[in-house]
Amino acid sequence: MSLKGKVALVTGSTSGIGLGIAHALAGEGADIMMNGFGDAAEIEALRAATAAKFGVRVAYSPADISKPADIQAMVRQTVAELGSLDIMVNNAGIQFTADIEAFPDEQWDRVIAINLSGVFHGTKAAIPPMKARGWGRIINIASAHGLVASPQKVAYVTAKHGVVGMTKVTGIELANTGITANAICPGWVLTPLVEKQLADRAQREGSTVEKVTHAFLTEKQPMAKFSTPEQIGGLAVFLCSDAAATITGAPLSIDGGWVAA
């Protein structure tokens, strides 16, 4: 398929899953608005390299996804610099772990602000330009934790369950506008951060990365294999295709059987 002529905004796209999605969409010809935190020079190098590799226009917004005004400004910037907003990928997220009774109030507020409220504000801001063109794709990156729970992750699990519910409402409200809304629910994803965590754990336990990885995966997933950012990007591309035109309001698992077990 081709997304040439489409514009995609991907939050949290300077690394990990978000970068994989941005590259997958760019690979199909979409112009990209990147977003995320990091060293300014490194981000500029990444932006330029993405544009050169895929032959598309790539812009960048430093918007803080915990701030509604920043999100609104980012959407306006996307339309102003790239001409439209056709694909909104609400990907930015953070994590904090602790038992409920010890969970810091400020960490609860931070996780909810970015992982849940940020999705709402991104969706709300993206709908008008999509309606104006009669076509749009809203893709929310939820999680297996949007469908099932784990201990010590009360804010993250709550936020991701909320994202799944929000996606359903969005799909229903926009059902006859040419806009679809779906939630991708990954299990364990092999990002550079996870690779480092596994290497550190293997060193601490005096084990091998292979053994630590197998134990880590099979604690939750029947399939002892990571998903990759590229695979999640591939699913996002599919959701933008004509084949997915009637898929809306759906949570789509890509989790090695996690929620089936």
Features:
261 residues, alpha/beta, Rossmann fold, 2 domains, 7-stranded parallel β-sheet, 48% helix, globular
What does this protein structure show overall?
This protein has eight helices and seven strands, in the order E-H-E-H-E-H-E-H-E-H-E-H-H-H-E. With about 260 residues, the protein is an alpha/beta fold. The chain has two domains: about 220 residues, Rossmann fold (3-Layer(aba) Sandwich); about 35 residues. The radius of gyration is 18 Å and the shape is globular. It starts with 6 loop residues before the first strand and ends in a 7-residue tail after the last strand.
Q: What is the gyration radius calculated from CA atoms?
A: 18 Å
Strand order in the largest sheet = 3-2-1-4-5-6-7
Number of strands: 7
Order of helices and strands: EHEHEHEHEHEHHHE
How would a textbook summarize the main sheet? 7 strands, parallel
CATH topology of the largest domain: Rossmann fold
Strand content: 5-15%
Task: Please give the CATH architecture of the largest domain.
Answer: 3-Layer(aba) Sandwich
Spatial gap, N to C terminus = 34 Å
Estimate the helix proportion, in percent: 40-55%
Give unreliable regions as ranges. none
Q: Please identify which CATH superfamily of the largest domain we are dealing with.
A: NAD(P)-binding Rossmann-like Domain
**What's the CATH C level of the largest domain?**
Alpha Beta
Shape: globular
Domain tally: 2
**Count of runs of 4 or more consecutive helical residues:** 8
- Class per helix and strand makeup: alpha/beta
Provide the residue-averaged pLDDT. Answer: 97
